[in-house]
Amino acid sequence: MDQLHKRFTVEQIKVLLHGYVQGTMSRTEVEEMLNISKTRFFALLKKYQQSPATFSITYERDTPARLSARVEAAIEKELRREKELVEDPRLPISDYNYSALRDRLKKTGVKVPATTITDRAKKLECYKPHPKGKAHDREVVTAAIGALVQHDASLHLWSPFAEEKWTLITSIDDYSRKLLFADFCLRETAWAHIQAAQMLMQTYGLPLRYYVDNLRVFRFVQAGTATGASMSWKRMTWIHSGDRSCASSA
């Protein structure tokens, strides 16, 4: 489609936008007359409403300006760095974050849109298509806040600058998806989980159910048999002394 400024004058477009503002024309009618998309319409409307007297149609480039060699090199350097993090099996990073990469470049004086970074990423093979499927792997199974709290822990090298792995203990409300507790521990112990549960319940109250995985600290072993710990805690005795290797900071 040819450019808007070649098909209409500024005054013609102002008349149509003015008609929409006054309520004499619908958005669909203006879009059809100008042969533009909904996004383009609202961009023009915003510009018109900001200053009707000085409204004009800016020239749109058919092709983007060519980036300098310095900018191209900076983008490639950051993409290579990001690729190392994604492909490091020790790190819990499975996808590229081009928005964060754009922000890092901006701090060095390189301002480019995320779409440009994505385009370069595909050419440099620093790109992973988004997998099709559910938005998340946690299915909401409750009908009210506080009906179920899901408690879990993950051991990873959470930072590429860390020298050792840390355990992240989290608790999330199943219905609201609110993160009720999150803290790092140097080592995962029963006391660390007790402290997490204590802080959560003293802050938000007792949930109807408290779901945990089959980790050994949640299992009761008697006569060679183990009982799983997907349970409802009816009573808990708080111990105020012992191993404090995990300092809560939720």
How does this model look, in words?
Strand 2 (166-173) and strand 3 form a beta hairpin. The protein has 250 residues and is of the alpha+beta class. The protein has a four-stranded mixed sheet with strand order 3-2-1-4, with helices on one face. It has helices at residues 4-7, 10-22, 27-34, 38-50, 69-87, 98-107, 114-123, 190-204, and strands spanning 149-156, 166-173, 179-185, 210-211, 220-222, 225-227. The chain is flat, with a radius of gyration of 28 Å. The protein has three domains: 4-50; 69-123; 134-250, 2-Layer Sandwich (Nucleotidyltransferase, domain 5). It is 37% helix and 12% strand.
Note the topology.
Blueprint: H1 4-7, H2 10-22, H3 27-34, H4 38-50, H5 69-87, H6 98-107, H7 114-123, E1 149-156, E2 166-173, E3 179-185, H8 190-204, E4 210-211, E5 220-222, E6 225-227
Summarize the helix and strand pattern as letters.
HHHHHHHEEEHEEE
Main sheet, how many strands, which sense, barrel? 4 strands, mixed
Would you report the number of β strands?
6
CATH class of the largest domain: Alpha Beta
Look at the helices and sheets and give the structural class.
alpha+beta
CATH architecture of the largest domain, by name, is 2-Layer Sandwich
**Strand order across the largest sheet:** 3-2-1-4
N/C terminus separation: 54 Å
Characterize the overall form: flat
- Stretches where pLDDT falls below 50 for ≥5 residues? 228-250
Q: How large is the count of helical segments?
A: 8
For the CA atoms, what is the radius of gyration? 28 Å
- CATH topology call of the largest domain: Nucleotidyltransferase, domain 5
Q: What is the helix fraction of residues, given as a range?
A: 25-40%
**Which percent range describes the beta-strand content?**
5-15%
As for the number of domains, it is 3
The overall average pLDDT, rounded, is 79
